[in-house]
Amino acid sequence: MNRLKYIGMDVHKAITVIAVLDSLGEKLTEAFVRTTSMAILDFLHGQRGTLYVAFEEGTYAAWLYDLIRPHVANVVVCNPRKIVNQGNKNDKIDAMLLAGLLRTKALTPVYHGEQSTRAVKELVRSYNGIIQDSTRIKNRLKAIFRGRGIDCSGEAVYRSEERESWLCRLEDQAVRARAKRLLEQLESLDPLRDEAEKELLTEARKHVDTKVLRSAPGIGPLRAAVILGMVGTPHRFRTRKQFWTYCGLSVVTKTSSEYELINGQISKSKKRPLVRGLNHNYNRALKEVFKGAAKTAAAGQWKSRFDAMIANGTPESLARLTLARKIAAITLALWKRGERYDPNKLTMSSHAA
């Protein structure tokens, strides 16, 4: 008889706590194993039956998913923010809770990408890490000048040829030395950024989907590579609204007292939901991609449409958001169909919010 087993893993740096339940929710065993490939696989190979495994998204999730996926029936990497435990908490309880929720299909899975695009994803992370470091240094540098009442708007403060003139504006020698080191750090990141970008584009060109993505309005080679690396496959999103949420472009609305009693009948209120901005839980790299694509399209092939929205009284920020949502919807549709963008076939209205 083929026995179903549900395995919850609470993974830590040195030790992984494992709980195993059967199909009726009865505890079969629990174990403490070292967080190594050999120890974890030895435990799984010692379990008979059809194995289903769950653990939380975290530092070890990608490694562990690739390690055990070929050896079990299914692996669920879950979102820890959506696990509610109102009682006591420890490693044993956490592992048992994961196994129980897995058995009842109550876990919210986190997507772990296609193996074929894993290299692109790692290179995107490398590139974005350097960009974030550069931004952090720039913010610290401008904070020095602004904190002393020195206007540093624009990009001039970062230019190496103007370095001495900017440093001379700082009267304190220690502050000047600090600013100089920040400028040197920023300059040292330039070749690393160029190298990371080159490696990313080289790897992305190996995938035919990149050509489809590049055809979308405002999407160039670098933005296409980031989309490919971060998303992996478009089929993980059933609708464009799900994609908008992942990209941080989903409008959040709040409403209450939706129903009212009229002449003894329950009717839905006509009160409009209140708009509360965009969703806060999103992929930051993708939001930057589509915001940048909207800015490019607004100054290029969609300039007339952007200008028309502004002429109709739409604020510029909202007009750019509208373009970003449309570009994201078009990108998802093109990618799913494997087709390149045709402005006569995929119109703005066909992907309206």
Which terms summarize this structure?
353 residues, alpha/beta, Nucleotidyltransferase, domain 5, two-stranded antiparallel sheet, 9 strands, 15% strand, globular
Describe it for me?
With 353 residues, the chain is α/β, with parallel strands linked by helices. The chain folds into 3 domains: 4-103, Nucleotidyltransferase, domain 5, CATH 3.30.420; 115-204; 238-263 and 283-351, no CATH class. The chain is built from 12 helices and 9 strands. It has a 5-stranded mixed beta sheet with strand order 3-2-1-4-5. Helix 2 links the parallel strand 4 and strand 5. The longest helix has 32 residues, at 173-204. It is globular and about 75 Å long. The protein starts with a strand and ends in a 16-residue tail after the last helix. The relative contact order is 0.08. Mean pLDDT is 90; it is low at 348-353.
Summarize the structure.
47% of the residues lie in helices and 15% in strands.
Name given to the CATH homologous superfamily of the largest domain: ATPase, nucleotide binding domain
> How many structural units, i.e. domains?
3
Q: What is the strand arrangement across the widest sheet?
A: 3-2-1-4-5
> How many E strands?
9
What general form does the structure show? globular
How do the helices and strands follow one another from N- to C-terminus? EEEHEHEHHHHHHHEEEEHHH
Sheet having the most strands: 5 strands, mixed
Helix content: 40-55%
Q: Taking Cα atoms only, what radius of gyration do you get, to the nearest Å? A: 26 Å
- The CATH architecture of the largest domain would be 2-Layer Sandwich
- Helical/strand content category: alpha/beta
What ranges have pLDDT less than 50 throughout 5 or more consecutive residues?
348-353
CATH class term of the largest domain: Alpha Beta
